[in-house]
Amino acid sequence: MAVQRTKDTYQKQIYDFIKDILVVCPGCNKNAIVRTAKQPPIINIQEKEIKVVCTHCGFNKRLEEKPASVLFSSSSNKKPQENFIIIGTAIDPYFHLQLWLTINCCDNILWAYNYEHLEFIKQHVEAKLRERNTAEMKNNSLGSRLPKWMSSTKNRDTVLKAIIQLQQKQIK
Asked: Which segments of the chain have a pLDDT < 70?
């Protein structure tokens, strides 16, 4: 049964879901998990607390062990960046590994960091009335940042079918 209305989707931010991120293991292509600190370390990265672990092949790496990336390069200058965070794409923010929960949907990629994030998206998509009951109108909530194709009424059934497929995707 579809939820008729939701108020929570405009209270959450993407940062609320970047804990225990499910990724594709670079060693065996099964699922692995990126474990982070209790609070998402967006501003102050605690590299010793962030690690990727695979229980299938034993792949295990801390963020501090990840090689530095090059942000831009020219013949005269290379600008290395120790660890930069990428949020809002189908890769994990820290190690930049492919997310486990991804599926093609409506000519786009539907992705979620974990099952909690996926459930949040499901509730938002299936709600026929999405209320913004906040004192201030802010545009940093996850509900306001979801792509139009995902929130569109015409895509609702297709997106919900894709979400159900992802929910049934077993952790190997």
From this structure: 1-11, 13, 38-47, 67-84, 129-145, 171-172
Name which of 96, 114, 90 is nearest 26 in CA terms.
96
Look up residue 53 and give its two tokens: 């672990």
Give residue 167's Cα distance to chain centre: 15
Residue 100's SS3 state is coil
d(CA 53, CA 72): 29
Angstrom CA distances, 133 to 5, 128, 156, stand at 12, 16, 23
Helix or strand or coil: residue 2? coil
* pLDDT at residue 108 in the model: 93
Cβ neighbours around 164 below 10 Å, total: 12
Tokens 């225990």 belong to: 20
Q: What pLDDT shows up at residue 3?
A: 46
Contact between 50 and 41 under an 8 Å Cβ cutoff? The reply is yes
Question: Which positions ≥6 away from 44 have C-beta within 8 Å?
Answer: none
Residue in 130, 112, 132 with CA at minimum distance from that of residue 2: 130
Strands 31-35 and 21-24, bridge-based pairing: antiparallel
Backbone angles phi, psi at 139, to 5 degrees: -110, 15
